[in-house]
Amino acid sequence: MGKVCNHGNNFIYYDIFSTNSGDFNHFPDDPEFADIIQKAEQAIENGVFPERISQGSSGSYFVKDPKGKIIGVFKPKSEEPYGHLNPKWTKYFHKLCCPCCFGRGCLLPNQGYLSEAAASLVDTKLGLGVVPKTKVVYLASETFHYSAIDRAKSRGKKYALEKVPKVGRRFHRVGLPPKVGSFQLFVEGYREADYWLRRFEAEPLPENIRKQLQSQFERLVVLDYVIRNTDRGNDNWLIKYEKPGEGAEDDEHKVRSKSIAAIDNGLAFPFKHPDEWRAYPFHWAWLPQAKVAFSQETRDLVLSRLSDMNFVQDLCEDLYEMFKTDKGFDKAMFERQMSVMRGQVLNLTQALKDGKSPIQLVQMPRVVVERSRSGGQGRVVTLGNAFTQTFHCKRPFFSSW
């Protein structure tokens, strides 16, 4: 973000330039996403600021375009549930007064923004299409939660520019430093899955629509299992559904307009399986849809990719390129995260081959697949010369299986 120096105006100018979020946001391979981020930056410049979302345990924001339309959800790293600038004081109180129950012991702290973007990457690589596009971006806004020092610096910069008008005209986006975080495209017309699932119990769907919902549900299962999502309830995945007479376009297929959106993926990619107080289960495992064997459509979509070790290795490398950008990146811990993910992929591949259901999948023994080395806990099976498969038998104290 630039160095803070007090040796002349040149250093002040450099610091001002470095707080321009546009200097960081480059998406040459995705011009559509780049255009959306540009609109978000233009809106902030014009005083249309992101609006903090009241729900949740972190500082997250609805981001708007210059006309005030919501176009995305931004979750800054520094305002994550246990981030040092989290505006939700209850989490800070939790950390201060109850450290023994603080956080999820299987996750690396303050990497939620990377988990959000990584879930989108996995979704894209597997062709699932259930995660709204999410990438790491930098944004600055007066409505974000900043420290008193940052706000004082911002006032100082504005005062300096008032004294040097020419510089002010050149560096028009000044003030508060950009925050790094995840930016997820906003999806319209969706409601929490729990709402629709209850409706579907009372008003059963036509068979063809039920099959479509089942197919979409299985994609959610594949995503959550591969990334080992530790925070999937029926309130943080969404369904879009239109009944006859509620906006569907043609008479013959009025009930067909439906899809799933998997949001809130910030608590995934653990570096070990949950083995302490809580199991962090997948709540979709209690749904009737979880008792149905994976469809041929789902197997055709992902099995050939997941069973290809080259594909899995490419996926790990893509995730490495993303995760290494974090200031606290630790290569050894990242490799542990990938060991868990490879184990999940291995189990899922076997379940798809064996015609199992999602409920049977989550009941399989937990596995990690790490680069070959001696030692380790559990039963070890060597997979060629590159990787070692380890079965873990320890169960969480609060386990649902």
TrEMBL record:
It is found in: Cell membrane; Cytoplasm, Cytosol; Early endosome membrane; Endoplasmic reticulum membrane. Its EC number is 2.7.1.67. It comes from the Eukaryota. It is a peripheral membrane protein. GO terms for cellular component: cytosol; early endosome membrane; endoplasmic reticulum membrane; Golgi membrane; lysosomal membrane; plasma membrane; trans-Golgi network. Pfam families: PI3_PI4_kinase. This is Phosphatidylinositol 4-kinase type 2. It comes from Anabas testudineus.
